[in-house]
Amino acid sequence: MQLQLTSPLDMHLHLRQEGMLQNVAPLSSKSFNGALIMPNTLPPITTKEMLLAYKKEILEATKEDNFTPYMTLFFNSSYDYDFLKSLKNEIVAIKLYPAGITTNSEGGVAAFDIEQLRPTLEAMSKLDIPLCIHGESNGFVMDREAEFIPIYKQLATAFPKLKIIMEHITTAASAKAVLEHKNLYATITLHHLYITLDDLAGGMLQPHLFCKPIAKRPEDREALLNLALNAHPKVMFGSDSAPHPKSAKEAPGCAAGVFTAPIALQALTELFEKHNKLENLQAFVSDNAQKIYKIFPPKKEVVLVKKEYTVPSSYGDVVPFLANQTLHWSIQ
Ligand code: DOR
Ligand code: ZN
After folding, report:
1. DSSP 3-state helix, strand, coil percentages of the chain (rounded to 5)?
2. Per-domain residue ranges of the chain
3. Mind telling me the catalytic residues?
4. Pocket around ligand 1: residues whose beta carbon is below 6 Å from it?
5. Percentage of residues in the chain with pLDDT exceeding 70?
6. pTM over 0.85
């Protein structure tokens, strides 16, 4: 048995820089045709020069494959129309982080004052540049995403022509909210379709499952599965694969991030097969994203075959999701 996917895309990916990028970028380009690249590097991507240099670094590391890095800029409310216009052909979206909410987000937005954000968001809206948001408040960790929903709604209403992508949604409330505004969309990760908080912290603590936003309740996972398995046109796959060295994960002060890139496509296939929804995988991993972002990736066929595959215990110094476990699908 086999399954052919055309131009699979990962619409939320962290590649880091230098040695880490050299290690992980080829693992994405082996499976995926392209990916939306997150800008929370050190320092974050905020200028055209940084963006072009970063894109070059990614293309260099993935040159064995035909991989398209869809670049993003780190949101800053000082960006004006002329600056964004000059970048319009180089970026696919802008990523907004609340200040300090996750890895390298210190320079993010400190207060969600619509009037202060208006000039930049209006310019993005005019230029048709989507806004990707890490939607969490700084409240109680289980409630952070829910507390951010009013801000999503406020932004979606104030800027009706701005496409807003609710990144890595983890709750039933977000799965509902995304359907309530025409201009809201969402990415869903592999790990939030697989795990709940119990897998992370119900037994011995599993640092390689720790990420932001943290995995939630079984009913939340059900709601995400319902959207993803049916490939609802407002959702698309974004792995949020976020590599950290083993030494930063298996440590007090464990870094947030689950590294799924090398096994994402195989594990998604397994999940969709288990739920008898294989026919919807193409839309979830590519077609929906092409329509939402108006991108036209070069055609690449990736064939998955039903053959057992044991996930390696590490890739360099990074431990992957499902390490040492056996999946039933492999990439040909
Ligand atoms: O767990 C996470 N890790 N969540 C994020 O939003 C960022 C990411 C990272 O860059 O490590
Ligand atoms: Zn992320």
Report:
1. 40, 15, 45
2. 10-263
3. 240
4. 14, 40, 102-103, 134, 211-212, 242, 256-257
5. 100
6. yes
